[in-house]
């Protein structure tokens, strides 16, 4: 098991008049190699939860295990944890600061104390994995497009060779094509490497298309945790907490109500198209 959370609670401003419970009795297991979507309205606790996974925030109560070790045990190596559980914040391009893209991506592995050749090898490999060829290596990161900056920032985390990659709204602010390019690259990365990926997103279409499992956060608790088809069966409950299902879900239900014998559990455009054609032929 890659990551296990047992009864994790977190209170902002504990023991103060402004105390706020952000996480409430979270119990989760994230197996190796899984692509997990984490969704929830603003303030639901999803980003707070993600920051617990690499030790940026320490739980008020509970335990978190990474590869069988309690990360809160005395003398646990947090630096090692953060090299294995990479966190890419929302708008990660704001973290770019070096003179060129290649030097920026080298920053993380260099700080791990690796030799010069290994640092270069990792940076080259990471940039290629995110689809940035050698023509971008020595450009200023500030000359790149928004999507290219996002890729460069993700490469900086990949160069640390994490076992787990956490992406907090990686497509925020990008146009539709840039968003699709980033997500396809992430999915390809996960397929090729078997890396565990947690994708925090507000886009139901994105999670429906790419992830194996969805965790829905609401008021600091896990509301649903299942495969996309089963989670989006609860679309009315999701609406009640400020979320929604993919547009495809609503279309399929509308077609069913009009008398077309379709499976309303289709969650992607491809699945919906196949199901509609099947129903029409039938």
From TrEMBL:
Keyword Magnesium: no
Domain of life: Bacteria
Domain ABC transporter: 3-244
Keywords: ATP-binding, Cell membrane, Hydrolase, Membrane, Nucleotide-binding, Translocase, Transport
Keyword NADP: no
Pfam families named in the record: ABC_tran (PF00005)
GO MF annotations in UniProt: ATP binding; ATP hydrolysis activity; ATPase-coupled transmembrane transporter activity
Enzyme class: translocase
EC number in record: 7.-.-.-
GO CC aspect terms: ATP-binding cassette (ABC) transporter complex
Subcellular location(s) of the protein: Cell membrane
Membrane topology value: Peripheral membrane protein
Physiological role: ATP-binding (A) component of a common energy-coupling factor (ECF) ABC-transporter complex.
Subunit structure: Forms a stable energy-coupling factor (ECF) transporter complex composed of 2 membrane-embedded substrate-binding proteins (S component), 2 ATP-binding proteins (A component) and 2 transmembrane proteins (T component).
Similarity-based family: Belongs to the ABC transporter superfamily. Energy-coupling factor EcfA family.
Protein name (database record): Energy-coupling factor transporter ATP-binding protein EcfA2
Phylogenetic placement of the source organism: Bacteria, Bacillati, Bacillota, Clostridia, Lachnospirales
């Amino acid at each position: 098991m890659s990551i296990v959370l047992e009864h994790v609670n977190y209170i902002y401003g504990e023991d103060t008049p402004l105390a706020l419970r952000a996480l409430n009795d979270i119990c989760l297991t994230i197996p190796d190699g899984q692509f997990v979507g984490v969704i929830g309205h603003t303030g639901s606790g999803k980003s707070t939860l993600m920051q617990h996974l690499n030790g940026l925030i320490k739980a008020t109560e509970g335990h978190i295990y990474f590869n069988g070790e309690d990360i809160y045990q005395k003398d646990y190596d947090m630096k090692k944890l953060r090299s294995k559980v990479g966190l890419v914040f929302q708008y990660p391009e704001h973290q770019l600061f070096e003179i060129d893209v290649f030097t920026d991506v080298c920053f993380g592995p260099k700080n791990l104390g690796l030799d010069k050749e290994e640092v270069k090898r990792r940076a080259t490999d990471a940039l290629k994995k995110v689809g940035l060829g050698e023509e971008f290596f020595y450009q200023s990161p500030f000359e790149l497009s928004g999507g290219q900056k996002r890729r460069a920032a993700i490469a900086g985390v990949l160069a640390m060779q994490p076992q787990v990659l956490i992406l907090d709204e990686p497509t925020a602010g990008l146009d539709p094509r840039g968003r699709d390019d980033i997500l396809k690259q992430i999915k390809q990365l996960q397929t090729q490497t078997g890396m565990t990926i947690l994708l925090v997103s507000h886009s139901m279409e994105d999670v429906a298309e790419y992830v194996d499992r969805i965790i829905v956060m609401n008021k600091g608790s896990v509301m649903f945790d299942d495969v996309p088809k089963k989670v989006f069966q609860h679309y009315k409950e999701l609406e009640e907490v400020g979320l929604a299902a993919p547009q495809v879900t609503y279309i399929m239900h509308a077609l069913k109500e009009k008398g077309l014998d379709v499976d309303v559990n289709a969650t992607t455009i491809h699945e919906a198209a196949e199901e509609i054609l099947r129903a029409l032929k039938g």
